[in-house]
Amino acid sequence: MLPIVATPPATLPPLADIARACAFEVSCFRAPIASSIDECAVYLLAGLDNWVGPQTFLIVVDGEPAQFGRYVGCSNAGSDCAGVLDCVSRGHDGDYCGAHPGNSCDGSLLVECGASPTDPTLADPALFTTDCAALGMRCFDLGGGVASCSDGTPCTQFDPRCDGNRYFEECDDSTHLRYREDCSLSMIPNATCRDGADRVGCMPSGPPCAGARCEGDVRVTCLDGEEVRNDCAQRAMSCAMVDGKPQCVPVTSACDAAAACAGSAITTCLSGMAQTVDCGALGLSTCMTDAGGDGPLCD
What we know:
2 domains; 3-stranded antiparallel β-sheet
């Protein structure tokens, strides 16, 4: 058995970085995942913290917290749409996705593009890529938008399970090749493979969970019998028991309004705190209301 090492509180991006990432998403993608900055903030916060029980918002992108963190990091490292999209997609731009709709391999990278629009020149860059080699696998491309990370072993049944507490196995239902991830290589800190009541796979490891609770501003929850700790203070929030469960709650309620334009800037409210994103800082000129009525964006 691998030793169980306590997982430190998760490191989360500042709320200002999340607001900027969401401004980029709704402004730079032709078909963004979220239709508004407010919806984007919900799914990014859920993705960054996806080990804490069921979410109230359907996450339409699969990914580990570190992948969402990389997305936020790229959004804040770039100074314009082109730079951010190049960082996020690892160079797999709209032209690549227009020619490779669905999943494809570029060397060891599994590139996940959306379905190609009627006009391939209108395709968005790939939002997420997975380095199969970093997970101890290879990328297998069967063509026609079908590709996956795998060790190359054929399989017929989708049956996720643990092989010991180090390897997570399942059968990819598109390629029918085995996905066998070495949890010690996972982006999840101190991951081990565990088969719990609600999920099976590489999970963060901690000491045996004595119960969900608050320890100061750290929220402690149980995942398959082991502790997961999240520092609410990193979101400018505190931990409080709500309906018998530890929750990150806003320290302040300085705002509660939906996102709106304020001159050439977008204003929004995250965790009770006002956030402002200047469109000029994104390489764009002004703030405008989306024609679909979904909220403001930079243009």
